[in-house]
Amino acid sequence: MREHQAMTSFHGWPATAFAFYRDLEADNSRTFWQAHKATYDEDVRAPFEALSDLVADDFGPLKIFRPNRDVRFSKDKAPYKTRCYGVTESEGGASYYVELNGHALVAASGFWMMAKDQLARYRAAVDDERSGAALVEAVAAVEAKKLSIEGHALKTAPRGWPRDHPRIELLRRQSLASLRAFDEAKWMSTKGAAQRIVDVWRAGQPLDDWLDRHVGPSTEPPDQRW
Q1: What's the CATH code, domain 2-214?
Q2: By the 8 A CB rule, do 186 and 110 touch?
Q3: How much is the average pLDDT of 179-183?
């Protein structure tokens, strides 16, 4: 019954949601936010919450991040994020991510900003001939489905690793995720938007399975990685 209710309540994001963030980019002020908070609540946040209900059984509920920026240690004092995003995590550690901004809808999955213990396991697995070759195959499988491979990377080889390592591009990664960004389109204001997001998450499964198997969740104190 809950699944049926969720499916009938999610209708995507209207064009006003994208326009809200374009306008916020131009006027990132408390005055603008207060004047348009109802648009955020109804056209941005509410669809994210409905999507969370819809995907909870298969992927877990989304953690929807707050709209306020932490400006304490930033030179940029703009008070509000110019995007809304949510994330959930599999038992194996892979994260599933969705974002809406002024111009696009983004879906991604993978491991973002791996902790020290995860990086150690990741690099050992990349270095191993068998698991390293399997990662190359997983990346190719994901790219064949028109997803891009994204993530933070060191400019050179990690300390202790040769610069001419056969998988140096993967070895330099600190984050590894498959992603697809969709330019604003009419289908985003329909129920079909949920299927597009889930399709991206499922298309990234070869990479997520590898990461779950060889890296797994961090045992260090939790932090924000998305």
Answers
A1: 3.30.930.20
A2: no
A3: 98
